[in-house]
Amino acid sequence: MPRVTTRIALATCAALPDLDPDDAPLVAALRARDLEVESPVWNAPDVDWSSYDAVVVRSTWDYTERPRDFRWWTQRVGQSSRLINPAQVLTWNIDKIYQRAMEEAGLPIVPTIWMDPARNFNARAIHTRFPAFGEFVIKPTISAGSRDTGRYDASKTPSRALAIQHVKKLLDDGRHVMVQRYLKNVDTVGETALVYFDGELSHAVRKAPLLEGPYREEDTEGVLYKEEVMSPRDASPAELEVGQRVLDALPRLMQGVEQPLAYTRVDLIPDDEGNPVVLELELIEPSFFFAQAPEAVEKFADAIVRRL
């Protein structure tokens, strides 16, 4: 009898038809396990997703530009193939409003003020929602890679004026907005990304700060992602404790979802007292920084194989 080949799709975007270079070792690791691996574009109209035994979301980095289409895609693929992570997880993680649920579950997040475009905020109402002092960050609740995000200084009138313009533009475009204090310790400590496969810590990396000033549209026009400066890091006991709390809370945050997830990335930054708080919970298409932790490739490949 002819040999039956197991086919795996590593979903990507049109700008990265061969995946992000960091994922190249994953392709090799899966093929070494006798799997047929392809990298179809997630929103290409001619892809038969049912022809794959599993679809792993990888470099779909433009989904934030069309979140409604991406939600529909996750549901369709989840019904015709095995989607990793599951569709319910992906759709829950699209909008950073999920952080409200995390805070309600007792997890530490960056203090955030939320602004809804349906409220029709005028400039004065926007201004009153900014911190009275210090620096702060404005970002849409659906974004990735620091796109459409800016850093402002509450003590400087021109900076506050630019911040109002930024919020107004986002709200006028129908986008929900987050206003967060800029936690200064990130300038020296950076972010810590904790990477988990099958609920087990694989490795940690340091991400250097990305935000340097106000949002400027020309900085991100035509740019898929801002380039990140990464280096290996040993996570502190406090960071590991928060990361484990996040993993332990996932069954409560997303009931009925298979646990543990194939992959999870928890991004932490230190607050003013140095305590780690969650900046992002990445469950859709996070980079795993295999260049900084080559041994992690095998762990992720094994996690995928266990779900076939």
Automatic annotation (TrEMBL):
Q: Which UniProt keywords apply?
A: ATP-binding, Nucleotide-binding
Q: Give the ATP-grasp domain ranges.
A: 99-308
On whether Nucleotide-binding is a keyword of this UniProt record, the answer is: yes
Instruction: Write out the GO MF terms.
Output: ATP binding; metal ion binding
Under the heading InterPro entries, the entry gives:
ATP-grasp, ATP_grasp_subdomain_1, DcsG_Biosynth_Enzyme
UniProt keyword ATP-binding present:
yes
Q: What is this protein called?
A: ATP-grasp domain-containing protein
Which species is the source of this protein? Cellulomonas triticagri
